[in-house]
Each structure stands twice: as structure tokens, then as C-alpha cells.
Specification:
The chain is α/β, with parallel strands linked by helices. 41% of the residues lie in helices and 17% in strands.
Length: 221
Amino acid sequence: MALSAKDVAGMIDHTLLKPEATEEQIRALVAEAKRIGAYSVCISPSKLPLPADLDLGDLKVAVVCGFPSGAHQSAVKAAEAARAVAQGADEVDMVINVGDAVENNFDAVEADIRAVRDAMPYGVLKVIIESAALTDAQIVGVCKAAMAADADFVKTSTGFHPAGGASVHAVELMKKTVGNALEVKASGGIRDGKFAVELIEAGATRLGLSSSQKVLDTLPE
């Protein structure tokens, strides 16, 4: 697959989720995302609402939910998602309860996702599954739960879990499971264009990157 830097840029959620992130850094994130032609910026919910004088251009705004552990009560995640959408988020990236997935309790995973889905009157819901912490069978089970709960995406990783981030194998398995019903977002540990393209070839339609320019610099224009 011959992909240019421009092609890949249009799939990027340009991400800043460091706890110490400042308003100045969020403004810089937005400016860089616009310059490189990213799809969106992905930020922490405490950064909403964004300053009224901040021109987003065509950028979408994604916000994380239940981040990074996912070990929040479903009602808390639902309230967080509802507030984020009310404050201007176009997309919500929620973390599942990974313990439920490890215990193969996929009904609980589905109920958790459904609680967030029902709390969002509109907007795109991405479900972060922490694929590196799961077996193949658990990845499949969580993806099926996300489909049943009417999510829009399944997403590999928070980028904060010690088990690791995105892998080609996980993306392939996730895409095989969801088919065309959901999209797949790869995130966590994507630091060069070659890996980014491999993930896209495996089925990812969105990439979560914090070092977007460095990745794009390794791709043809």
C-alpha cells in the first residue's frame, strides 16, 4: 500500500494526554494538528471546554473516558462521556474494565460500553480494549461486546499500560472480528511511518499518535 504523509495525516488523532499538559500545550497541539492535516486532537476531559478563541478549523475533538485504567464504575464513565460531549467533544475514547475482559465476563464489558453509549446523545464512541493485556480469544470477545453495544470503533491501547501498545496482529484480529460493522483505531507505541502503514494495511482506519510529525517525516510526501 503506497501511502503518503498526507494520506496518513488524515487518519491521525493527534494526542496529548500527559497529566501535566497545560493550556499553552493544548493550543500548540491544535496548531500542529491543523498544520499537518490531522483528523482530530485527542485530549483529557479536564481540558474542555476549549478556549473560545481557539480556532479548530476542520479538526474534530476526541476526549478520553475512564482513562487510563478503565476500572471506574460504569455510571462514572457515562457521566464523564455525557459531560465531554456537552462541552464540545465530537468523539469519546473509553477504556473498558480490563479485569472483566481477563475474566471473560463479556456481558459486563458490553454493559459498561452500553452505559457510555446511552449517555452520549451523539458523537463517535471508540472502545479502548488494551489488546496487549488480552489473549486472542479475549480480544475477539471484547470486540463482539463493542459491536453489540453499538460502539463505532475498537481501539488497541491507551498507550499507558505496561503490557504494551498496538500490534499488527491485534489490529488484524480486531478487523477480522468487527468486519465493516466497526472501525479500528491503533494507538500506543507508533513511532515511525513504516509501522503506521503496517497497521493501516492490517485494518486500522485511525491512528492515535503523540509524535505525529516524527512519524510523518518518515513517509513520502
